[in-house]
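One such given next:
>
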Amino acid sequence: MNWLRRWNARSLASQFFIAGGLISIAAMFLVGILVTHLIEEAVIHNSGAATALYVDSVVAPLLPDMQKASLLDEGSAQALDETLGQGALGRRLVSFKLWRSDGTILYSNEKELVGRTFAVNDKLRSAFAGSLVARYEIASDPESSEERALGKPLMEIYNPVLQPWSGQAVAVIEFYETAEGLSDSLAHARLRSWAAVAALTAIFFLILSVLVFRVSRTIEAQRRDLKERVNELSALLSENRGLQRRLQRASQRAAALNETYLRSIGADLHDGPAQHIAYASLRLDSDLLINASTQPETREKELAWIRSSLAEAMTEIRNICSGLVLPQIEKSSITEIVTRVVEAHQHKTETRVETVIDDDGPELAPAVKICIYRFVQEALNNAYRHGGGIQQAVRAVSHNGHVHVEVSDRGDGFDLSEVGPTSLGLVGLRERIDSLGGSFDVKTGEGGTTVTMTFEPMEVGD
């Protein structure tokens, strides 16, 4: 249903303005009709009551005992004719009838109606019950043919004639009044009532609209904020999933690299120090040392070979250990870390490394410091072994916790496709940096090789 989708797509304020406006207009018409009807009835009743009081005060003294009279005697009828036919009362009254409870007309200024009996209608019945009945309409009763012939609304009044000592209605006076000015009064009353209802409805609707629009703006703002938060959380969740997968892959590769490191260290120990120690052990069992007849010079020469092999084994073991053991860098700055690695590399290889360090001194996490140390160490070793140590350079920048380290040389470069997944150098650096959430990049070619690492380190203590 397209209209329902379009309706739901509107804001709450817009929905209220449309639905509330229609309901308010409908309520205004219903209330206006009811209020106008009540006001009209009140105006007609009050006007009829005032006229009935006046007529009753004039006519009642002229009436005989209505409980005993069947028709008015000639004297009473003549007195009524004279009273109703002249003066202010004669000008206002169109017709006059005196009813008995059985529907018989005891007197009327229309003489042909006197003595006739008509069906008792609701208005007459209410009057005999003691109530004043007033209507402003075109005459429709069977006995009101002459009044109906005028073709205009008249004030029709039924006023009970009450017995003084019992208060019982013994007769009913019915008369039609021209009611000049009543039409204008009713029109004015209708206009004022409709204006009041419309004004109150408009004020009420406007106040509610202001409140609803304010609430709607608040809800819309909260909805936008919530949507932004949900989008942010969704993005963070997606990023976290990516980081989790990345960390899992890095952990798996790191475990494989650790095994490769262990095999490499085992191979270095087996091919280096172990060979020299085995050689020395064999020479210790030689006959030249066991036989007493061996010349001192020969024995000393054999011992010199053994000492030389053991010395070489110790040297190789120290070299292997020096690459495995880190210096105390937990409290060192990035400037001190890079300087220490560069100086050690220059002393070991007897080459020169151009160094540029821009450090604003923020404290870095120990894992980041170790990563920087190993990165510069391994990159410089690769620059010396594969690039010949030509124009080696290290550039380290650390600002507001963001770290960027770059190691370059101007050697012949190499083919990145030849670097296998089990390579300990570049692959090990990439895995170490990835595990900390950083980025690693290698650019190589005929003009040399540049290796960079960039990341935002963790807070101290993470």
Notes: The chain has 13 helices and ten strands. The mean pLDDT is 78.
